[in-house]
């Protein structure tokens, strides 16, 4: 989502969501299909997230020029439908593990930004953490915990337990992306160290241990793990992966310039690794 609620359509950047079919070997490069535009809408379409079965994608979209709502795309039928109808904006939708509910950041009438949980197929949801009201972005962790990007600047990284809601401050000057490490009680996040170098760190929330993973040039700040444990980022029209398990080096996965794609931002993978969704700046 954006840092504060957007009130005028002309302030909203234009993004489209594209879907690629994938075929991965156990490690390294795979095959991919031509990207297909699934949002089909001029304006703001962002923050895709797959269902646990990989058969649906939910994402944020502004279609009335006033607020953002959550839309669902079904891969087999190619059906696109709006699934939230509140009077305020929702951002950053993510399915829960069972696929029966999804979580969003809801911008409430007073400007507070809280986490809400909404049952699939229902219009009403429930507030998850009343005392946590300045959430920019989040990542669900184990044991009813959430890693949260907290406003205002300097943006801080904090972990909240859904029951206790007492914050554990982890770091500051962070980027918006936080990604759980597959199969581990840990997540990675970005620290905007200085103007010449940013750092990707891992935090293990059981051992309380920090590990510096790598440094990158300032610019892109979105990343995502694939099911094989490779960490993906984009720069311009190119997708790169970081071999998190072995070499700890970056490799080129694909350059999508031939498909008319110039700027890639967010990335999401289906749990089975058969599909990738990417957010692309409109031309």
What does this structure look like?
With 283 residues, the protein is mainly beta. The protein has one domain (9-281): 6 Propeller (Neuraminidase). It is 0% helix and 49% strand. The chain is built from no helices and 25 strands. The strands form 6 sheets. Strands 1, 2, 3, 24 and 25 form a 5-stranded antiparallel beta sheet that branches. It is globular and about 45 Å long. Residues 2-10 have low confidence and may be disordered.
Question: What is this structure, in a nutshell?
Answer:
By secondary structure, this protein is mainly beta.
- Counting helices, strands and paired strands, the structural category is mainly beta
> Please, what is the oligomeric state?
single chain
Name the CATH superfamily classification.
TolB, C-terminal domain
Total beta strands:
25
How do the helices and strands follow one another from N- to C-terminus?
Answer: EEEEEEEEEEEEEEEEEEEEEEEEE
Q: Using the 3D structure, state the CATH architecture.
A: 6 Propeller
CATH top level is Mainly Beta
Task: Kindly estimate the percentage of residues that lie in beta strands according to DSSP.
Answer: over 45%
Separate helix tally = 0
According to CATH, the fold-level topology is Neuraminidase
**Biggest sheet: strands, sense, closure?**
5 strands, antiparallel
Helix proportion range: under 10%
Report the principal-axis shape: globular
Using only CA atoms, what is the Rg? Answer: 18 Å
Which runs of at least 5 residues are low in confidence (pLDDT < 50)?
2-10
First-to-last CA distance = 21 Å
Mean pLDDT: 93
The total number of structural domains is 1
